[in-house]
């Protein structure tokens, strides 16, 4: 059986109709690839449509304010992608006159574009003969060819890329790369794939040797860090509140949040309340402090679990730098905070 030919035939019959597949415009392909990193298609598609409506060209994205970009990205996570997207759009608009580089090696020079994204743009937009290797590709190749290399190891990327390159049919890199990714996303899925109705069920090494569930091999993830966030939602006599831009590097950089007290472990309510009063986050006299128990949540990120509480604090007088709630809603927040704001819990 010709693996590549069969895969392409499967793809042409089964592929999903997605807007970024109906174009060779590198701008649209780039947008989709950045959005779909660490994100399912079903989640990313509405964002793609909103972005392309707001920013139909790379010039439109380049000219936007960062806050506007982050607001549209709100809820998609991994916000460094949005910041890099904006900065790269500005570079393409200014240094490349709006024209994307047309080769894999040149694309790699742009911020936020790594091996996979460069290969995707180069092959989908320009049909350059370079293989794409993402999680779906690792899985398909590991199972079909019984590759037992740990995909988290330093050697894996080189080995799987070399194998994918051997399989690239001449002149069809664009369709083959999309085919193998789609096959991994729809057919050769991580858990309980329907091997009985697979086009490769008579030639897949993992299926023949009953190793489908064991491949690809992947070592355990890094230990998850727990953090305790106590957000303080002030309200003055004009019903204004305080928000601040998160300037520290790390999660949610340049997004907005309420004044924050972070602790190294869970603490009794009375102790946190004491912290809020003693830290004098605002000069106003405090009238009342209480935790909104219905808003407490555990927010799971890839390497961190955030234990989040929201504390409502009423103060006398007027907050310096206070903001009304309608204005607050227009700012970009981490989705876990915006969900609190949307429910108007105060």
Can you walk through the features of this model?
InterPro entries: A/G_AdeGlyc_MutY (IPR005760), DNA_glycosylase (IPR011257), HhH-GPD_domain (IPR003265), HhH_base_excis_C (IPR023170), HhH_motif (IPR000445), MIG/MutY (IPR044298), MutY_C (IPR029119), NUDIX_hydrolase-like_dom_sf (IPR015797). Pfam families: HHH, HhH-GPD, NUDIX_4. Its cofactor is [4Fe-4S] cluster. The mean pLDDT is 94. Strands 1, 4, 5, 6 and 7 form a 5-stranded mixed sheet that branches. A two-stranded antiparallel sheet has the order 2-3. The longest helix has 16 residues. The chain is 42% helix and 12% strand. A hairpin with a 3-residue loop joins strand 6 and strand 7. The chain has 2 domains: 212 residues, Endonuclease III, domain 1; 118 residues, Nucleoside Triphosphate Pyrophosphohydrolase (Alpha-Beta Complex), CATH 3.90.79. It is built from 15 helices and 7 strands. Helix 1 packs across helix 11 and helix 9 crosses helix 11. By secondary structure, it is α+β, with helices and mostly antiparallel strands.
